[in-house]
Design a protein that fits this description.
CATH topology: Rossmann fold
Number of domains: 1
Number of strands: 5
CATH class: Alpha Beta
Number of helices: 9
Strand content: 5-15%
């Protein structure tokens, strides 16, 4: 079985890709692959390494726009690399794969996203509205590499924090439409957090949703 997990940063994709990896799936973590490509950019003067969220920063910071573009360019290369691996190994029936995509994979371009969707089953992790405020708090406290794509607009009367709080729901709504467009199956937020809902139940739900992408 070949799966791509899609959804907002912080929705639980990495948690589940880790569980699937423990279950024998070959795991491609796009964020880790992007960080590897940007390793020279992430190194601080003291020799330590910053994470991607710290490097990209918030959309109101001066380096954000250029770093957003740099990140997206790397993301396209990483997803293309994964697609090439899947195509090369299309006749290897024993290899199960999970692609832990970034929240911004939907901006990689329709050609790239459609190729990945042709080769993998897109599993969407929706997040209910009552959880989104907590996601914003987590983003502010511990920045993740979030691509705003010009959806952050600050008025002269707002602080940066107020503008983030106002614009974040707009970002989620715009992305939800794209996630839903590409999703082959969605797994409910509360269901995937239920006690006793493990990898077997997760895979059973995917299979029950319809044909899944397999090798060969």
């Amino acid at each position: 079985m070949r799966i791509s997990l899609i959804g907002m940063s912080g929705s639980g994709k990495s948690l589940w890709s880790g569980k699937l990896s423990d279950h024998g799936f070959k795991r491609f973590c796009c964020d880790e692959m992007i960080a590897s490509r940007l390793s020279h950019e992430l190194r601080k003067q003291d020799g330590t390494t910053m994470d991607l969220g710290e490097w990209m920063g918030f959309p109101y910071e001066k380096n954000y726009t250029s770093r957003e573009s740099q990140y997206l360019a790397c993301e396209k290369k990483v997803v293309t690399e994964i697609i090439e691996h899947l195509e090369r190994n299309d006749d290897s029936p024993g290899e199960s794969v999970v692609v832990d995509t970034t929240g911004s994979v939907i901006y990689a371009g329709d050609d790239i996203v459609s190729k990945l969707r042709r080769l993998t089953t897109f599993v969407y992790f929706p997040v209910p509205s009552e959880v989104q405020a907590q996601m914003l708090k987590q983003y502010v406290a511990t920045p993740r590499p979030v691509l705003w794509r010009e959806l952050f607009r600050k008025s002269s009367e707002e602080t940066n924090e107020q503008a983030l709080a106002r614009c974040y729901p707009d970002l989620l709504r715009s992305r939800e439409a794209l996630y839903q467009r590409y999703a082959d199956v969605s797994i409910d937020y509360y269901k995937r957090r239920q006690e006793g809902f493990g990898v077997e139940e997760f895979l059973r739900d995917i299979i029950a949703s319809g044909p899944v992408k397999r090798n060969g």
